[in-house]
Amino acid sequence: MSDRVDLATLTPPVALGALDARYRRTVAPLTNHLSEAALNRARLHVEVEWLIHLTDHGVLPGAPRLTDADKDYLRDVVATFGAEEIAELGEIERETLHDVKAVEYFLKRRLDAAPATLGEDTVLPRVHEIVHIFCTSEDVNNLSYAITVRDAVEQVWLPAAAAMTDDVAALAREHADAAMLARTHGQPATPTTLGKELAVLAHRLRRQLRRVAGTEYLGKINGATGTYGAHAISVPGADWEGVARAFVEHLGLTWNPLTTQIESHDWQAELYSDVARFNRVLHNLATDVWTYISLGYFRQRLSAQGSTGSSTMPHKVNPIRFENAEANLEISCALLDTLASTLVTSRLQRDLTDSSTQRNIGTAFGHSLLAVDNVRRGLAGLDVDQDALARDLDANWEVLGEAVQQAMRAASIAGATGMEDPYERLKELTRGRRVDGPGMREFIAGLGLPDDVEARLLALEPATYTGLAASLVRHLDD
Domain Adenylosuccinate lyase PurB C-terminal, which positions (predicted)? Predict the structure, then answer.
């Protein structure tokens, strides 16, 4: 190995994971919210807004009021946080060995530099001690994570997941009448329609999306053990609960009044469980569509899947989008499950297990987003093979056995005679045997059914035995 290039030393750095290399383009929008740089920008935002909040509301006796120009300057520090600032903050952190402390020092540098922009009259260089006052790192971190996770979900993940689900719903509506042989336990079963089966999946996905959309993002800013101890002893005249609540709500979050040093992360666990459940329903969709492809019900357009199907078998168009989705959903769920189960526990008033754990939030959402993108692109490359659907239905007339049996029972209840043992009679005809159309009709004609019942059953075919399946798709509009 000594004669090989050391890839770890190359510039720009070589990505360790696939999300930051092969799949970068798909997951890049999450970088604005769930990257390390985005977290630091959010920390800077919290620190700036806390400074403005305290001075605006006169919480600290003797503290100066900031002018509109001062506030604009501070907020611009957050807005312009880019490559140079990320590098500078990194240098500070290498000295502090503490990420939140580095943000505090970074902001204080900007306070000192304010006169060059605002003039010598600005008070910003004199408010050093208000930066991070009464805050632990967790006061800043819990709010920053709540902001970044909320924005990632609402601005990136949810729109992508909803658009993909809408595609599934559109396919369901388009093929609401496409009769299809169902398979329960992998065996031929009562026919359905392709649209109805896709509608079931779209309905399930939408239910999980509603849960995710209803997430309550909690935050706190109450000190070292959640008691406002330093606050109350330093400035006893302030309504610290009111100040904290107003600040958390100013950030667009829900105030949590009862915490230890950490906000309890229960909302995170709830969110990650909901996203994982969405992932698992989507995984079910991917495996079902994969199976329909293998049965020939869907044809894949090569142009939509990629230029190469198999490296050695040129006739193949592999369902790679759905297989890729399965893999990424499984990885995402593994991470989300770990986040959900780990983050709800913190020893006594604080430990740091959540610190390392939360650094994987972006990865968990990245793999889910990648799967959503793959499913959407996979669905866009499918065509329904109506002939294949029809062939399968016509080869399985025995599935009408259920209809005949239940019609016999209903006729018996209505007073018809000779309808005894319908299940056993149908089992003798159909179990383990293929029955064709003439054979099924001959059997029906020999049952002695009432004329109207017999006529309905003799007119029945597997392709028309779909019940209310087509009309059930309308529930997607509920």
Answer: 346-466
